[in-house]
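SAMPLE LOG
Freezer: B-3
Tube label: C17
Construct: single chain, 148 aa
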Amino acid sequence: MAKSLKELAELMKDVDFAMLSTHTENGAIAARPMSNNRDVDYDGDNWFFACEDTRLIADIGADANVGLAFQAKSGLLGMKPVFVHIEGRAELIRDKAAFEEHWTKGLSMWFKQGVDTPGLVLIKVHGTRAHYWDGEDQGEIVLEREAA
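STRUCTURE (predicted):
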């Protein structure tokens, strides 16, 4: 039986880093590790900060279809690996109020001026489909139906 979004959120609750994959201008796939800032109460959306002048932002600007790969541990003594892949669409947000809503003090390590960092961009990845595998169970959750 397929897991629910709530069950998937429980698997992902302690995962901070994801590999965020984008399509480059020549069609290749580029991936980079991103912290979701412990903003991991998963409801179908993930949030990441980046700088405007990066290849990541250029890739998303050209093609908003992205993938997120997570690895977590669950089960007996936290030893069973859980893999989750989210397909989604990225949105680039340049609003200071949104920055403040998703900001955590640990981000100052990368963004020295906090939410006032020049060129700061918030990336919202709205998941459309989730795939999971935990060694015993696997499945897919449709997070948003595609328009007909």
